[in-house]
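so my prof wants the structure for this chain in the C-alpha coordinates format not the other one, which i didnt know existed until like an hour ago. anyway here's the sequence
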Amino acid sequence: MSYAPAPGLPVVDAMTPPVLVLRGPVTPDGVSGPSDALRALLDGGGAGGVVVCDVGGLGPPGLAAVNLLARLQLLARRTGGRIRLRDPDPALCSLLDLVGLGFEVEGQPAQREPAPSVEEAVEPGDPAV
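here's what i got, hopefully its the right format
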Protein backbone atom coordinates (compact mmCIF):
# COMPACT_ATOMS: atom_id res chain seq x y z
CA MET A 1 0.00 0.00 0.00
CA SER A 2 1.35 3.42 -0.84
CA TYR A 3 0.20 6.97 -0.40
CA ALA A 4 1.25 10.39 -1.57
CA PRO A 5 3.30 12.44 0.87
CA ALA A 6 1.54 15.42 2.40
CA PRO A 7 2.58 18.74 0.87
CA GLY A 8 4.62 21.14 2.99
CA LEU A 9 6.50 20.62 6.23
CA PRO A 10 5.49 17.91 8.69
CA VAL A 11 3.46 18.99 11.70
CA VAL A 12 5.58 19.00 14.86
CA ASP A 13 4.42 19.91 18.35
CA ALA A 14 6.61 22.60 19.85
CA MET A 15 8.09 21.75 23.23
CA THR A 16 7.75 25.00 25.11
CA PRO A 17 8.52 24.77 28.81
CA PRO A 18 5.97 26.01 31.34
CA VAL A 19 6.58 29.42 32.90
CA LEU A 20 6.46 30.27 36.61
CA VAL A 21 6.14 34.03 37.13
CA LEU A 22 7.71 35.21 40.39
CA ARG A 23 6.54 38.55 41.79
CA GLY A 24 8.19 40.66 44.46
CA PRO A 25 8.87 41.76 47.01
CA VAL A 26 10.21 38.46 48.29
CA THR A 27 9.99 37.77 52.00
CA PRO A 28 12.04 35.12 53.82
CA ASP A 29 8.90 33.15 54.70
CA GLY A 30 7.27 33.43 51.26
CA VAL A 31 8.76 30.26 49.76
CA SER A 32 5.89 27.78 50.07
CA GLY A 33 3.65 29.32 47.38
CA PRO A 34 6.23 29.32 44.56
CA SER A 35 7.46 25.87 45.65
CA ASP A 36 3.97 24.41 45.36
CA ALA A 37 3.49 26.05 41.96
CA LEU A 38 6.84 24.70 40.72
CA ARG A 39 6.01 21.20 41.97
CA ALA A 40 2.70 21.32 40.07
CA LEU A 41 4.43 22.43 36.86
CA LEU A 42 7.09 19.73 37.16
CA ASP A 43 4.46 17.06 37.86
CA GLY A 44 2.59 18.23 34.75
CA GLY A 45 5.45 16.87 32.64
CA GLY A 46 6.82 20.00 31.01
CA ALA A 47 9.27 20.04 28.15
CA GLY A 48 12.01 17.76 29.42
CA GLY A 49 11.52 18.74 33.06
CA VAL A 50 12.44 22.37 32.43
CA VAL A 51 10.48 25.19 34.02
CA VAL A 52 11.20 28.80 33.10
CA CYS A 53 11.12 31.15 36.10
CA ASP A 54 10.31 34.71 35.07
CA VAL A 55 12.17 36.75 37.67
CA GLY A 56 11.73 40.16 36.05
CA GLY A 57 9.17 41.19 38.67
CA LEU A 58 11.13 40.19 41.77
CA GLY A 59 12.25 43.71 42.50
CA PRO A 60 15.61 44.62 43.98
CA PRO A 61 17.79 41.54 44.51
CA GLY A 62 18.56 40.44 48.01
CA LEU A 63 19.22 37.38 50.10
CA ALA A 64 15.50 36.54 50.26
CA ALA A 65 15.44 36.26 46.44
CA VAL A 66 18.61 34.14 46.49
CA ASN A 67 17.04 31.87 49.14
CA LEU A 68 13.87 31.49 47.06
CA LEU A 69 15.74 30.64 43.85
CA ALA A 70 18.07 28.22 45.66
CA ARG A 71 15.09 26.36 47.14
CA LEU A 72 13.32 26.23 43.77
CA GLN A 73 16.45 24.90 42.09
CA LEU A 74 16.85 22.25 44.80
CA LEU A 75 13.22 21.19 44.43
CA ALA A 76 13.55 20.97 40.65
CA ARG A 77 16.72 18.88 40.84
CA ARG A 78 15.21 16.52 43.41
CA THR A 79 12.34 15.82 41.02
CA GLY A 80 14.66 15.32 38.04
CA GLY A 81 14.05 18.71 36.44
CA ARG A 82 15.73 22.07 36.27
CA ILE A 83 14.81 25.73 36.16
CA ARG A 84 15.86 28.42 33.75
CA LEU A 85 15.74 32.13 34.59
CA ARG A 86 14.03 34.64 32.33
CA ASP A 87 14.76 38.37 32.46
CA PRO A 88 17.01 38.41 35.54
CA ASP A 89 18.37 41.70 36.84
CA PRO A 90 22.15 41.92 36.27
CA ALA A 91 22.59 42.59 40.00
CA LEU A 92 20.68 39.36 40.76
CA CYS A 93 22.96 37.40 38.43
CA SER A 94 26.00 38.91 40.15
CA LEU A 95 24.61 38.06 43.57
CA LEU A 96 23.86 34.48 42.51
CA ASP A 97 27.41 34.14 41.17
CA LEU A 98 28.79 35.59 44.38
CA VAL A 99 27.09 32.93 46.53
CA GLY A 100 28.07 30.16 44.11
CA LEU A 101 24.72 29.38 42.53
CA GLY A 102 24.86 28.81 38.80
CA PHE A 103 21.59 29.20 36.94
CA GLU A 104 20.79 28.70 33.30
CA VAL A 105 19.53 31.97 31.81
CA GLU A 106 17.34 32.18 28.74
CA GLY A 107 19.16 33.52 25.73
CA GLN A 108 22.62 32.75 27.07
CA PRO A 109 24.58 29.65 26.17
CA ALA A 110 25.15 27.22 29.02
CA GLN A 111 28.64 27.40 30.47
CA ARG A 112 30.15 24.07 31.27
CA GLU A 113 33.34 23.02 32.97
CA PRO A 114 36.09 21.63 30.78
CA ALA A 115 36.48 17.88 30.59
CA PRO A 116 38.64 16.52 33.43
CA SER A 117 41.08 14.76 31.10
CA VAL A 118 41.97 17.93 29.17
CA GLU A 119 45.23 19.55 30.21
CA GLU A 120 46.70 22.82 29.12
CA ALA A 121 49.87 22.75 27.08
CA VAL A 122 52.99 23.99 28.82
CA GLU A 123 55.84 25.50 26.89
CA PRO A 124 59.36 24.47 27.92
CA GLY A 125 60.97 27.18 29.99
CA ASP A 126 57.70 28.61 31.33
CA PRO A 127 57.93 29.28 35.07
CA ALA A 128 55.72 27.09 37.22
CA VAL A 129 52.89 28.97 38.88
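also thought this was worth mentioning. Strands lie at 19-23, 50-57, 82-86, 104-105.
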